Amino acid sequence: MHSPFKLINKNILVTGASSGIGRQCAIDFSFNGANVFLLGRNVEELKRTKELCAQDVTIKYFSIDFSDLGLLSNEIASICDEIGPVHGFLHAAGIEKSLPYQHLKIDDYQCLYDVNFVSAMEIIKTISNKQYRGDKAKYVLVSSIASVIGRLSLTAYAASKGAMASAVKSLSLELAKKGICINCISPGTILTPMMIKMMDALTEEQRTARKESFPLGFGEPSDISYAAIFLLSDAARWITGQNIIIDGGYTAQ
Amino acid sequence: MEINEFVKNFANQFDETDASEFTPATDFRQLDEWSSLIALSVIAMIDEEYDVVIKGDDVKSSKTIQDLFEIVKSRKKS
Lengths: 253, 78
Fold this sequence. Notes:
Chain A is α/β, with parallel strands linked by helices. Chain A is built from eight helices and seven strands, in the order βαβαβαβαβαβαααβ.
């Protein structure tokens, strides 16, 4: 029986697959039937993700560095030549910077913008191309609730995440003509290695206060991966251009 | 690294508090202007100026500017 909520036989690219939300998504996609192609910088960690994925689907990893975006399009094209049509794309690659605005340098803004946002656009440019795109393709970008709320010292990070959320609206109109849906997911605080590092600047009391500010407590990577499975599945065929906020009730307050 | 320079860099993170209020013995959390944002600024300053990454709990465990200076100094050596 056809299950619209599964990802059976879909080829899905996942960036940031070496840890955190990207890794969890890759694992959960594979157990829902997808062939998953892992992109990231750290080969050892990508191998580890591959080991954690389902073994009855195709899993491959590719080392890729977003520091030279000029090369990205070509690199993605050669990956697509190898894997075939791309039905799904999950962009979880991202870097953080928690700095009061007076300490932010021009390079900080540019680096965050390039890695968190422009890299996704460059990849989409390639995979949405007629020769590479799969039927009913769906893309999901992992943004952040910093795209819709303010938090001390996150100016540059929030700008890069907000760029994703607003770009997706315009981009969805162009991609609709190709039958492609694109959405953002904006997670609240999920205890990934990156977030734990980000919260190092806080005191124990501040970390407790942060946790208590989420009615359902901190999130887990699977809270995001389950929503991503839905948005990449056939069940989400009429959802596009949205920023889905998954934050344990934080922004309901 | 030198304590007077550290005190000056520390004082630079404040907008309203007069520079004369800062000495190595200043109990900085008692200053009216002290806030979690200034704590983040101090952490960023220490990273930029001294190439030492400290945590929020390091700031919390320090009472005076001298205490924080000692933490930074000890990390710098290692």
